Hints:
Layout: H1 5-10, E1 22-27, H2 31-41, E2 46-51, H3 62-73, E3 79-83, H4 92-100, E4 103-104, H5 110-115, H6 117-123, E5 130-134, H7 135-139, H8 141-146, H9 158-162, E6 167-172, H10 177-190, E7 193-198, H11 202-209
Parallel strand pairs: 1-2, 1-3, 3-4, 5-6, 6-7
Helix pairs in contact: 3-4
Amino acid sequence: MSLSDTQLTEEGLPLHSVRGKVLIIACGALAREIIDLKEANGWTHLDLTCLPANYHLYPEKITDAVRATVAKHRTAYDDIFIAYADCGTGGLLEAACKDLGVEMVAGPHCYSFFEGNDRFSKISEDEITTFYLTDFLVRQFDAFIIKPMGLDRHPELRDMYFGNYEKLVYQAQTDDPALTAKAETCATRLGLTFERRFTGYGDLKTVLTDL
């Protein structure tokens, strides 16, 4: 399947046909990871549709969009799973999932579940000055970081936004030297030290395995 990061950011991933028994409704930023896991494990019972990844810039849109997507596809599937953590919804997504009778990924955000929620909860207090990027965010760095913050037009604002950060941690889902090099460039652009941390798919793989 050919996936455009721009499409995943702005449009998401439509459901082309009903083939499996369980539908995953995910953030577009997780599309490649979920497809890779499906193919590697032969999870033909799982179908996938994604909401636009740029909803993370407007988290107030996520809960209503999830509700609408569940309502649209509910009768076609035995079960539906929401591949989002809280993701800035302030508990509203969790409440909606309980109301809809569907499960979701535990944790505050994808950085936590890629790291592993248990581990992230232990290290997060020591990483308050850490800025995180995933594979997707490295590829879409300009679309999610530079342009929304206006740093393409006003680079002098960088230190105002990132002056309290010290380190950029690249949570690598894959072993890709070119992506690692780009992540290090991202750290340089933000004036931060760089650390690559291979997380793989973390808790995302665990929860999808159980579906």
